[in-house]
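I am still learning, so can you show me any protein sequence you like together with the matching structure tokens, please?
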Amino acid sequence: MGCCCDEDDGDILRHLMNSNFASSSSANSLPPPSPSPSSTVISPMNSHFSALSSTDTLQIIFEKLPIPDLARSSCVCRVWNSVASQRDILTRAFLAPWKLKDVVGNPLSRSFWRDNSLAKFAISHRVVRGDSVASLAVKYSVQVMDIKRLNNMMSDHGIYSRERLLIPISNPDILIKRTCFIELDVNAKREVAVLYPDDVPDIKSTYVSNRIPSEESNKKVLESLKRSMQVDSETAQYYWSVSNGDPRAALAEFSSDLQWGRQVGHS
């Protein structure tokens, strides 16, 4: 699906114009009279409403939005995208419906934040001798097929080659005041918000590919982007985040914005 961020400001303004001032289909086809200053109604869909470009105001508004609406807001324009993509706003919206305490980790894909349904969460169960998919289904009150589907298992025998299984959550009350950890499970081949016993993850796990991201490696990438773009740290961090951690995509996005800025400046 296309994103309004890919359009120029002229297109964005046209999308946001208040339809209340559209011409009517009256017999004489005369345009409606211009409203006097005293009778003008400031609409949140009026693109000339200065609050729409105020990051402080947008933060106050976006803090009230659920995850799906945040995703839609991020596609309106670059300013909205930058505010709607702030980690604290995303985190608050992600936690709120389930009364979670915290979420730890950074997803590899920004699309992770676009859905916080119950299917996004799972319990980490470390496999021990005697475990079977059927016994775990009974223990956690879930369906055998749901466990197999979540863990990308073709048969029950797949359990014996794994250190852990992800268990679907059937009762949302389990999430209340809990901390979840964003993980890319190498067996399930998906990113999941995982719950651990006592909210303590297994640091020595081999089934998670992004348990502890290398801060040193991230710093080197950001420094390289800063030098290439000749920008400050915050700008480099922004373009790196919107490109899902892909330096080449970040440079391409930055170049596109520079070209857009030149075109607007010459218009």
